[in-house]
Design goal:
By secondary structure, the chain is mainly alpha-helical. The protein is 64% helix and 7% strand. It has 14 helices and 6 strands. A 3-stranded antiparallel sheet has the order 2-1-3, with no helix packed on it. Strands 5-4-6 form a 3-stranded mixed sheet. Helix 2 packs antiparallel against helix 5 and helix 4 packs parallel to helix 8. The chain is elongated, with a radius of gyration of 36 Å.
Length: 389
């Protein structure tokens, strides 16, 4: 038997402070305070008892327990919900066209496969004709056209294979890095196309409005400098916006309601409270589109004014024919792009259809417009592919 000072717990679980108590060695007590202090015990300490609120009674503790449980559930519930989880993203799921049935998807797959194959063949023919025909290699217009056709091949290839696979097997995953890599190439090639259309408008303006000075103003060296500038600025234009968007936090289940990695579905899957990265991307897109469209419209406005001053005849007809083919490509591409990114009503299925048009349709129509309306190109295709005169 010995006497110690400290706290004891009675059979009801209430803490009681005692100044002196007689301990029976045959009875097990739960004690804290000086009774467990290292100075008063030589046993090895394996655990501690937290006092908590020893002054509260049983009913008070139960009431406080209920209140704190409700507060904990209200606080941790939304944070632990799967929709708000911000774990490291390794992949996304592209939904594609979830509203289409199997037969509709198979029909669309067949049509898009034919369009993709025709796009590749048509644009490869133009590139081959420019590379193999000595007459076209010397003319800036066809140097630009050859690069433009190669650009269309890359542009459609950045989205079509993934889209075709998604039509056959909806909900295919795409890794995080592959998604943003596709995003970068798709938008960079689109920006490059804008710059090439502006460069082709400049070339037509100099050829028609400054015919005597054209060989000097658009020399072979200057033409290739213009080509290199289009590629360079096109691939530099969206580096910062896309890099910022890749740093956003994304919420599970990481699904993107689209067939490509586009800003709208990526922002919809983001958990970040402020989509400042999306605003930067939208600003960069608007600046690119407005600047190039304004330049193209100004160039063709001056061209039309100069053509109207020409006497009626073969010269005016040829000038109008060349400008018409260029304006057709410009209208198709910029028209669909502005509809998709300028009007919020084009979200969802309508937005996907519009993107299909300028991502697949415009590259398909490019070789048809340039080859069928251009005598020099038709002659070069005949000489290089068929071995004709």
């Amino acid at each position: 038997m010995s006497e110690r000072m400290g706290f004891l717990i009675d059979p009801e679980g209430t803490w009681k402070k005692v100044e002196s108590v007689t301990l029976n060695p045959n009875i097990e007590y739960f004690t804290v305070g000086p009774l467990m202090h290292p100075a008063n015990s030589t046993a090895t300490v394996t655990q501690f008892l937290l006092l908590g609120f020893p002054s509260l009674g049983r009913q008070s503790r139960e009431l406080l327990f209920a209140l704190l449980s409700l507060a904990y559930a209200a606080t941790m519930g939304p944070l632990m919900h799967p929709a708000n989880s911000t774990a490291t993203v390794t992949q996304f799921l592209l939904l594609g066209f979830p509203s289409l049935g199997r037969q509709s998807r198979e029909l669309l797959f067949a049509l898009l496969s034919l369009a993709y194959a025709a796009t590749m063949v048509g644009n490869f023919c133009i590139v081959w004709a420019v590379l193999r025909d000595p007459r076209l290699q010397r003319l800036p217009m066809y140097i630009l056209l050859g690069n433009f056709s190669w650009l269309e091949i890359c542009y459609v290839t950045s989205t079509a294979p993934q889209m075709l696979c998604n039509l056959l097997s909806p909900g295919l995953p795409i890794s995080f890095h592959a998604c943003f890599l596709q995003f970068y190439f798709f938008f960079s090639l689109g920006a490059t196309e804008c710059f090439f259309l502006a460069a082709m408008a400049l070339d037509r303006y100099l050829a028609i409005c400054q015919p005597l000075r054209y060989p000097v103003l658009m020399s072979h060296q200057l033409c290739w400098t213009l080509v290199a500038s289009c590629w360079f600025f096109g691939f530099m234009w969206f580096i910062a916006p896309i890099s910022l968007m890749s740093r956003l936090s994304f919420c599970s289940p990481y699904t993107l309601d689209h067939f490509v990695c586009d800003p709208a579905p990526l922002l919809a899957a983001s958990c970040s409270p402020a989509h400042w990265a999306g605003q930067i991307c939208s600003t960069a897109s608007s600046l690119k589109i407005l600047s190039t469209v304004s330049f193209i419209l100004a160039s063709y406005g001056l061209i039309i004014t100069a053509v109207l001053r020409l006497p009626a005849g073969a010269g005016r007809h040829k000038a109008f024919s060349t400008c018409t083919s260029h304006l057709a490509i410009v209208s198709l591409f910029f028209g669909s792009v502005m509809v998709n990114y300028s009007f919020p009503t084009t979200s969802g299925t309508i937005g996907k259809v519009v993107m299909l048009f300028y991502a697949v349709g415009t590259p398909l129509l490019n070789p048809l417009i340039y080859s069928l309306r251009n005598k020099e190109m038709k002659g070069a295709l005949r000489r290089t592919l068929l071995g004709g005169p």
